[in-house]
Design brief:
Layout: H1 21-33, E1 37-42, E2 49-56, E3 68-70, H2 76-83, E4 87-89, H3 92-98, H4 100-105, E5 110-118, E6 123-132, H5 141-163, H6 183-187, H7 190-198, E7 202-206, E8 212-215, H8 217-223, H9 227-230, H10 235-238, H11 245-257, E9 261-267, E10 271-280, E11 283-290, H12 307-325, H13 330-345, E12 349-356, E13 359-366, H14 372-375, H15 387-394, E14 398-400, H16 403-409, E15 422-430, E16 433-442, H17 450-487, E17 498-505, E18 515-521, E19 528-534, H18 539-557, H19 562-575, E20 582-590, E21 595-601, E22 607-609, E23 615-617, E24 636-640, E25 646-650, H20 662-676, H21 681-694, E26 702-709
Antiparallel strand pairs: 1-2, 1-6, 2-3, 4-5, 5-6, 7-8, 7-11, 9-10, 10-11, 12-13, 12-16, 14-15, 15-16, 17-26, 18-19, 19-20, 20-21, 21-24, 22-23, 22-25, 25-26
Length: 714
Amino acid sequence: MVAVVDAQGAAAVRPPIREPLLSLALTSMMDAVGAHSGAVYLRPGDEPLLEMAVMAGLPRSFAAPWERVGLSAPIPVADAVRERRLVWVGGQEEMARRYPRIAVVLPYPFALAAVPLATAERVYGAVFMTWPGSRPPELTERERRELTSACDRLAARLERAAQENRTVRAESDLLDAGPVGGAARTLGPVEAARMVARLPYGLCSLDLGGRVGFVNAAAAEMLGVPATRLLGTQLWASVPWLNDPSYEERYRAALISQDAVSFVALRPPSDWLSFRLYPSTTGISVRISRARAVTENRPSGPRSGDAPTRLVSMSQALSLAGALTETVSVQDVVGLVADEIAPAVGSQALALLGARAGRLHVLGHHGYPDPRVVQRFDGMPLSSQTPGAHTVVHGVPAFFESRRQLEHLYPARQESPDGFASWAFLPLIASGRPVGACVLAYATPHLFSTHERAVLTSLAGLIAQALDRALLYDAKHQLAHGLQAALLPPSLPALPGIEATARYLPATRGMEIGGDFYDLVPSRPLPAAVIGDVQGHNVTAAGLMGQIRTAVRAYTTVGQEPGEVMRSTNRLLIDLGSDRFASCLYLRLDPERHRAVMARAGHPPPLLRRADGRVRVLDLAGGPPLGIVPTATYPTTEVDLSPGSVLALYTDGLIESPGVDIEDAIADLGRRLGEAGDRPLEEVADELVGHYAAAEERIDDVALLLLRAAREDG
């Protein structure tokens, strides 16, 4: 039962709404826009979760991986709820591009719309509908209006139900199965039945659930199963040599795409039969005929187990495997398990435990009212008598259907109850070695069937592979950031007459380490500043950056002039034999004279903001990037650095974006510097890098060094 709660979260206490509210609204919407399937999702209270309340037009098993989904899941209904907008996917290619995980499980041509059920106060859920892939790829304005207005009306009904503390129940799915039984009831007139019986090829009719409603004598003979045993059963369940997922897949393809599909199957020992499936919104008509001998290998052997159950498990595995391949860090894995895997298996809480140096480590958890219950296991020896340690050491899953079972084997658990009633402890084994354990907790006593235990154990294998990759990534990530931090100055020295601040943002691709650098050198008699960018985003670039920064400091300390510092660094880079080059901008500062002497090596031009707010691009003369021309020279330019002026030195990551002209980007940076330049320097720096700091993806490193000449009155 799915309950709608009131604004204070109080549980519904009045009788439920008795009329099939959701079913009527759904079928009305489907008729209005010509959709062939659809479903209504509702939010259970304020949980970040969507639960399917009713489905129409297709068996629910087709949507099994998404019966319960987290609001953060990258699927259309979750996007529609989060963004409060209609989401339209016009076909198979667009689905593969925008929602690859759905395309993996349902690789068929169909279109889909997802619409939120929302009022001004809250979002109650969402509706999705599908159309055959043959429809136009765009949603018409009429269809858009029909869907949004119908969903607005349903949301208003749900809001009234919540205000009246009335429950909206999940409803029975709508499948036009029709009567199942004899040929006369299925076909109608007797003469029609006689006509079909005389045809030389086999005919049978399947409802939307795959059950046989009619079969003629020729079909029964070719299938080798009496008609009485076929009627009312799923074809692949009654015909052993059709009990194969690949044949069920063609049935799913026909229903979802609403296009005719064909396949050939071997009836042992040597008879090949051709199947042609003609779908409609009420079922599938199947024509069966003898096929010419084929030489290619095709699946033919029977498979054990219940076909619909296996179909659901296969879909779940495909969907979640696709999701786990997208995870990068350990926290990504924890988030995915919490948002999608735990809801899919009905768990209310989880913990991921890692194993390192003979001890357990809590990698992440979700759903525990008191996090200290989980954290007490962090650092616990693997020799301890706990179910988590036992699962890691022995690599065997453990299922506890009640607290009594758990505490019987592990009495120590009585001292720290976690508030749950059932648990699954799943070993995470990757490449034959244990990497940890996944603990799933259930709020009520839970019976783990043999099938469910197998599914959970299989999911644990997928989680283990993702976690193993994530642990390696996090270790490399930590190493890279440690190296980057060691190569950049931990703080900027205080200089008389100069205020300075800096920002560094690594690229989000690769190892998130690069060759951008900056430094402030408090040398005598005059200090210096430098900013540069070594080609590349890896450890090699970072190491070369460290050598260049050290060289610049050394040449500055021995008193070389700006042009000579650049020439010496250029020769050093060439002598090192590196195939990389670097851009660089070097300044010798003279605060007392309010001057600065600059030398540039292929670096973006600095910006100078004067005290009156005017900004100038200092397009200085310079030489080529360092490391290219052994005999290169670097002319210098002296610029005025009057009191209150701000110099902005930056790397190209701050101004380069796909599709944006460099000159326009520099002009925009200058505009923002002009507007913010009178604020405290830290705020100015945050303003200039704000857009890049908030971006989820940066294709290049960003370094920024701001220098402000002290005002004479300050």
